[in-house]
Design brief:
Layout lengths: L14 H22 L4 E13 L15 E5 L12 E6 L2 E6 L5 E13 L5 E7 L9 H14 L4 E6 L17 E6 L8 E5 L7 E4 L8 E4 H11 L17 H11 L3
Helix pairs in contact: 1-3
Length: 263
């Protein structure tokens, strides 16, 4: 069953749902590109890692990114484990171990897609799907903007997919206000960027993914990718328990409710 919305499903934008959706969406997008891309390329999910520390006295929990590991390919099958700090206390003439705990921490990965030349392993195109941290003030947004600027200064194409209504949009001169937007920055056309702004009730545009000059751009149907995530996860059973966040305008909420009556 495909998502009942013609474009982005706003119920995936809930903070508690987004991370799982983001990971599944990137995986399905990876598969969609690999199925249709010309020979001579390969696609990979790559990752940087931040460590967030949350203490009991934090209200609300503070995010303190401490570690950034950039351009590391995802290694499947690996899992992180917690640690135990052991202190030694002197009791008479003997040393006795004392079991202590590290502060609770959450690993928040940042993942994106790269299309590389199969022969030379050179990055041809970077594809980003924005997360709430990219659109919120703070270190995460600053780090992302720095990375974005570095890509704009490189000889790699860049595709930026924003499927979040909330937060501060990425800076573009001359871009109209919209719920969502997709930007394609082609190397030879910079500083110009092609942008597709679209709304909640609009279909998601077909994205033209630029490749090497000798190869035609690869059209990707992002709605089909979203529907694969929606259907594969039986999302109709779980994501409608809570209202969208940010809340929908009254007219959009009425429209969305009518769409969901068919489920």
């Amino acid at each position: 069953m495909p998502s009942p919305f013609p474009g982005m499903n706003p119920y995936f934008e809930q903070p508690g749902r987004w991370r799982g959706f983001h990971n599944k969406f990137l995986t399905e997008l990876n598969y969609a590109i690999m199925r249709t891309i010309a020979p001579g390329y390969y696609v990979d999910i790559e990752e940087s890692l931040t460590i967030d520390i949350t203490r009991d006295d934090d209200a609300p929990p503070r995010r303190r990114p401490k570690l950034m590991i950039a351009d590391v390919a995802v290694r499947r099958g690996m899992r992180s484990t917690g640690g135990t700090a052991v202190a030694e206390a002197r009791t008479g003439n003997r040393l006795q171990s004392v079991v202590a705990r590290l502060p609770d921490f959450v690993r928040v990965p940042h993942r994106w897609l790269t299309i590389r030349d199969l022969k030379g392993k050179k990055v041809v195109t970077v594809i980003e799907v924005l997360s709430p941290a990219n659109k919120a003030p703070g270190k995460d947004r600053g780090a992302y903007l720095d990375k974005r600027e570095a890509i704009f200064s490189s000889d790699a194409h860049f595709v930026e997919i924003d499927l979040l209504r909330g937060g501060e949009p990425m800076p573009f001169e001359g871009c109209p206000t919209s719920d969502y937007r997709i930007a394609v920055s082609r190397v030879l056309q910079r500083p110009s960027v092609e942008i597709w702004p679209f709304g909640l009730r609009d279909p998601i545009p077909i994205v033209p993914v630029p490749l090497k000059p000798a190869d035609p751009e690869l059209p990707i149907d992002l709605k089909a990718v979203l529907d694969s995530v929606y259907d594969g996860g039986r999302s109709e059973l779980t994501i409608y328990d809570d209202p969208p966040e940010p809340p929908l305008a009254r007219r959009d909420a009425t429209w969305a409710k009518k769409l969901l009556t068919s489920l």
